[in-house]
C-alpha cells in the first residue's frame, strides 16, 4: 500500500527586523532574532490593495515587522510593521489618520474636526488633468499666507497666467478694486470703475 504524503500546515508568527528591501517587487528580507537571527527569503509585504487600486509603502531596513511564515519558515508574508520602544507612534488618538515621513513631511486627517493637514518643506502639486481644462475647485475659504505664482515663477509675489474672475470685491490692504477712485488723475477726478 502506497503511503500518503504528510503535510504540516502549521503557521508561525514571528517578529523580525528588515534586513533588505526589494523596492521594485515590494518584497522584504527579514532577520528573525527568535530563530538565531535566521534571514528569510524574499517575502511579499502585505498591502491594502494591489489591483486596479494600488497602495505602495515599504518599511526601512532596521525597522521591526511581523511575519506570518509556514512551518519551515521558508515562505510567508510580512503583514506589517510594529511600534516599539525605539519607534513610537506619531500621535495618540484613534480619531487621527497620520502619515509621517522620515524627511519631516506630514499628512494628517482628524475625523472629529474633518481637518486635513499637509505639512512639508517641499512643493505640493495638485494636477487635475481633465479633457477640457485643468481645474482646482475650492468650496470654502481659501487663505494664502505666502505668495502665489503661476508658470512665470515669482516666489512670494503673485504671478497668475490667465484671467481672474471674481463675483465679489477684491481688496489689497483696505483698497477695493471695484470701489476705489483716483482723485487728481490727469488734472481731474476719476469715478468708480464700470
From TrEMBL:
<dbReference type="InterPro" id="IPR037026">
    <property type="entry name" value="Vgr_OB-fold_dom_sf"/>
</dbReference>
<dbReference type="Pfam" id="PF04717">
    <property type="entry name" value="Phage_base_V"/>
</dbReference>
<dbReference type="InterPro" id="IPR013046">
    <property type="entry name" value="GpV/Gp45"/>
</dbReference>
<dbReference type="Pfam" id="PF18946">
    <property type="entry name" value="Apex"/>
</dbReference>
<dbReference type="InterPro" id="IPR006531">
    <property type="entry name" value="Gp5/Vgr_OB"/>
</dbReference>
<protein>
    <submittedName>
        <fullName>Putative phage-related baseplate assembly protein</fullName>
    </submittedName>
</protein>
<feature type="domain" description="Gp5/Type VI secretion system Vgr protein OB-fold">
    <location>
        <begin position="16"/>
        <end position="82"/>
    </location>
</feature>
<dbReference type="InterPro" id="IPR044033">
    <property type="entry name" value="GpV-like_apex"/>
</dbReference>
<feature type="region of interest" description="Disordered">
    <location>
        <begin position="173"/>
        <end position="194"/>
    </location>
</feature>
<feature type="compositionally biased region" description="Gly residues">
    <location>
        <begin position="185"/>
        <end position="194"/>
    </location>
</feature>
Amino acid at each position: 500500500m502506497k503511503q500518503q504524503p504528510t503535510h504540516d500546515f502549521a503557521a508561525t508568527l514571528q517578529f523580525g527586523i528588515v534586513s533588505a528591501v526589494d523596492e521594485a517587487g515590494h518584497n522584504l528580507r527579514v532577520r528573525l532574532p527568535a530563530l538565531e537571527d535566521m534571514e528569510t527569503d524574499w517575502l511579499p509585504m502585505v498591502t491594502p490593495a494591489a489591483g486596479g487600486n494600488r497602495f505602495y509603502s515599504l518599511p526601512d531596513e532596521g525597522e521591526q515587522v511581523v511575519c506570518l511564515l509556514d512551518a519551515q519558515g521558508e515562505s510567508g508574508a510580512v503583514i506589517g510593521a510594529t511600534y516599539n520602544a525605539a519607534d513610537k507612534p506619531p500621535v495618540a488618538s484613534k480619531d487621527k489618520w497620520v502619515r509621517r515621513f522620515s524627511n519631516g513631511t506630514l499628512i494628517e486627517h482628524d475625523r472629529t474636526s474633518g481637518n486635513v493637514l499637509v505639512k512639508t518643506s517641499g512643493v505640493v502639486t495638485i494636477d487635475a488633468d481633465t479633457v477640457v481644462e485643468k481645474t482646482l475647485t475650492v468650496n470654502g475659504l481659501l487663505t494664502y499666507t505666502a505668495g502665489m505664482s503661476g508658470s512665470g515663477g515669482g516666489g512670494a509675489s503673485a504671478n497668475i497666467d490667465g484671467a481672474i474672475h471674481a463675483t465679489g470685491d477684491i481688496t489689497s490692504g483696505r483698497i477695493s478694486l471695484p470701489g476705489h477712485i483716483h482723485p487728481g488723475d490727469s488734472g481731474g477726478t476719476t469715478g468708480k470703475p464700470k
